[in-house]
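# nightly structure sweep
# worker-07 picked up a monomer target from the shared queue
# config: single-sequence mode, recycle default, output format = structure tokens
# input follows
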Amino acid sequence: MNQIKHVDKNDLKEKINFECETGNYHTFCPISCVAWLYQKIEDSFFLVIGTKTCGYFLQNALGVMIFAEPRYAMAELEEGDISAQLSDYEELKRLCLQVKRDRNPSVIFWIGTCTTEIIKMDLEGIAPKLEAEISLPIVVARANGLDYAFTQGEDTVLAALAQRPNAKQLDTPVEKVISPDKDYVEHVPLILFGSIPDPVVNQLTLELKKQGIRVSGWLPSKRYTELPLINEGNYVCGVNPYLSRTATTLMRRRKCKLIGAPFPIGPDGTRAWLEKICSVFGIEPKGLQQREDEIWEKLKYYVSLIDGKSVFFMGDNLLEISLARFLIRAGMIVFEIGIPYMDKRYQGAELQLLQKTCKEKNIPIPIIIEKPDNYNQVDRIRDMKPDLVITGMAHANPLEARGINTKWSVEFTFAQIHGFTNAIEVLELVTRPLRRNQKLEKIGSQRYTDRR
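# output follows
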């Protein structure tokens, strides 16, 4: 196992070393965001507008949910559509009326694909007319394969939601949250954005309540009809690193104030996230250091498995910076952080926490490579020989065949990894390949004797 020698703090780089390669994107298509968003927004229906290839992808990626009643469908473009021989408006109207009759959703999301971009299909122009005709909200989101990472599909959907003001939201003055509940202090409304499971929503909301902060709403909410009021001057804060477009929309279109905080992944990230929100509202945090220490105590077994082990991020889901920072804090050596796309403004606080973590651990800051070239990465992996590679599904089996432990990065996207109590889920995923190898070695070392 390769080890990075500890160096004096004065020798550490003051700035993070960023590089950019010209590799292809080897991630899922962003229309895969339908998989978790249709379950999150319970009164929605997602209509993906694309070709048969998009349909095959959805069948394969979402096929495991065959026993559930899905609230998504594929509007397949045929040769007639592409050659402009058919009326887009009439076809989409027919499909939406069928959806309204059969499913009665509160909102229909149109998910545009690569094909709709290429043929310049005017979904944004059609939607308002059709919405008025069928009396059902239609939200258009361009979640196509031209994006950097598959998780950015969620970003386009939330950005589209953030642009839709309700009539009661217009020209509403900013008011402080005044509650007779003594658990809360007076403060400007706070809206959190990012699609995470309801149990995690409740956990993070409760953590803020302990500090006297009331969450005025989440984007997205459990139901479209329960979307939070977003007014000028409200504070907003994200929970996922891939939502830079949503953050920009909330700031520019809705005139909200963004709280630039690290993301609540790992006990260290969750504490920093809570502390930053508290500082904005002028609240002195209570008990966060003790809370973080308690979680680290519960993680001791997992930390002992990865302490001193090395990890290499190939880059897939834009969670890489947050995960690397947490794993460094847990004692791992990060050789390289590959990431498909880097928004240094939106992830600025996370980058600062990464620097701080490396300084406190007295180790060099790992290199961050945007849009990495996978061929070059494989060469570097061969030279560095990391104990674990976190990679997209395309490269997992080839690397395993060469004796390299891997973990699918997509698993971190679907697992509950936010907040104090869910930090164990991250280490459970990271240590699984290492624990499996230990078991296999134990079995292989046992000697069987013939007792005939």
